[in-house]
Design a protein that fits this description.
This is M20/DapE family protein YgeY. It comes from Candidatus Roizmanbacteria bacterium GW2011_GWC2_35_12. Keywords: Hydrolase, Metal-binding. The chain has 397 residues and is an alpha+beta fold. The chain has two domains: 263 residues, 3-Layer(aba) Sandwich (Aminopeptidase); 112 residues, Alpha-Beta Plaits (2-Layer Sandwich). It contains eleven helices and 21 strands. A six-stranded mixed sheet has the order 1-2-6-3-7-20, with helices on both faces. It is elongated and about 80 Å long. The termini are close together. The mean pLDDT is 97. The structure holds zinc ion. The site of zinc ion (ZN) has 5 residues, from helix 4.
Length: 397
């Protein structure tokens, strides 16, 4: 049943095809909310491979299914990308899918069209080798992750028909097994003042001066946030500041700062907001605090509003999912895998963080490539991930 040599040989045989497919989808720009063209291309590839069922949900996420067994295994890969940033930093065209010395270059190659392509082609191996099992193998090309991680799976799990037993995130892990990440929040703090003519500031109340001690306190707050042995430290930083006033010759009547808060084990939306409310500077300024909302339209014009609170999550190292992954890895490579966590955030915030669906990560490419100029992924990683996804599916059943 688990013929390691045959799986490896077949994966190697498909290397040319997967490289071509990845280069194709890298060459189709797909910023968050603009994924339609890449979804169409993916749908074509799924047809070519012979997926049993291909569906696109009302939000615009695409699913391919193979088999209709009891165990629902979903391999998720977001197919949107961030923008390219400063073009002068790119030595290669970000949308050509250049292939050189076994590296595929371009925006989205590592983050994370590569992982998605590997999952898609794992389906081809299952199909072509007729590898049977009591599984429904799904590959999900999810959208809008870069703008709002997990929004896709919040929607799918609320409105869709798929109830996975396990989700494997195909984001880059350098072919290691990941089992969690810190959460995050986008928070806004506002102080109000009373404007007056700038020539007589004593007549008004300056909102910026009210904010100043809060800024100091946020910096101090960061240094005393909790450290978790596995996930690392909770952090907070101020990402933006702005203010309003009737003119440049007036006292400011409002000041707003935005916080990027990363949540480690044990930290929640409630605890993070409470900490801010407790700051003496915050109380003294009578300031306001809120978590921001996300309500952008998908490429299919669907709006699914959510709060920008992305809970942290982990699954236990000794749990079924991680141990299945460890066995699959050992069978393929005859050695112990490294087990770790992402530094950034993933769709796991919805699958595991909100809905408690066991979620793990395994993906080709290096996490450090994400959002960087000259982003690239080793083609051989794609082959290895393909093998692992097949091995995990068989081992899980
Ligand atoms: Zn990503």
């Amino acid at each position: 049943m688990f013929d390691k040599k045959l799986i490896s040989k077949t994966a190697e045989k498909y290397k040319k095809d997967i490289v071509k497919f990845l280069r194709d989808i890298v060459a189709i720009p797909s910023l968050s909310t603009k994924e339609k063209k890449v979804v169409d291309r993916i749908s074509l590839e799924m047809k070519k491979i012979g997926y049993d069922e291909i569906t696109i949900d009302p939000m615009g996420n695409i699913f391919g299914r193979i088999g209709k067994g009891k165990k629902i295994i979903v391999f998720d890969g977001h197919i949107d990308t961030v923008d390219i940033g400063d073009p002068s930093l790119w030595k290669v065209d970000p949308f050509k899918g250049r292939y050189e010395q076994d590296l595929i270059y371009g925006r989205g190659s590592a983050d994370q069209k590569g992982g998605f392509a590997s999952a898609l082609y794992a389906g081809k191996i299952l199909k072509d080798l007729k590898l049977q099992g009591d599984y429904s193998f799904y590959v999900c090309g999810s959208i809008m992750e870069e703008d709002c991680d997990g929004l896709n799976w919040q929607y799918i799990l609320k409105n869709g028909e798929i109830k996975p037993n396990v989700v494997v995130l195909t984001e880059s892990t350098s072919l290691n097994i990941y089992r969690g990440q810190r959460g995050r929040m986008e928070i806004e703090i506002t102080t109000k003042g009373i404007s007056c003519h700038g020539s007589a500031p004593e007549r008004g109340i300056n909102a910026i001066y009210k904010m100043a001690p809060i800024i100091k306190d946020i910096e101090k707050l960061n240094s005393r946030l909790k450290i978790d042995k596995f996930l690392g430290k909770g952090t907070v930083t101020i990402s933006q500041i702005r203010s309003t006033s009737p003119s440049l010759c007036a006292v400011s009547d409002s000041c707003t700062i935005n916080l990027d808060r990363r949540l480690t084990a044990g930290e929640t939306e409630k605890s993070a907001i409470e900490e801010i409310r407790k700051l003496s500077s915050f109380k003294k300024a009578n300031a306001g605090v809120k978590v921001l909302d996300y309500k952008e339209k998908s490429y299919k014009d669907l709006v699914f509003p959510t709060k920008k609170y992305y809970p942290m999550w982990t699954v236990p190292e000794q749990g079924k999912e991680v141990q299945t992954a460890v066995r699959a890895y050992r069978r393929l490579y005859g050695k112990k895998p490294k087990i770790s966590h992402w530094v950034f955030s993933t769709n796991g915030i919805a699958t595991m963080g909100m809905h408690k669906i066991p979620t793990i990560g395994f993906g080709p490419g290096d996490e450090k490539q994400a959002h960087s100029p000259n982003e690239n992924i080793p083609a051989q990683d794609l082959v290895e991930a393909m093998k692992f996804y097949v091995a995990f599916t068989l081992e899980y059943c």
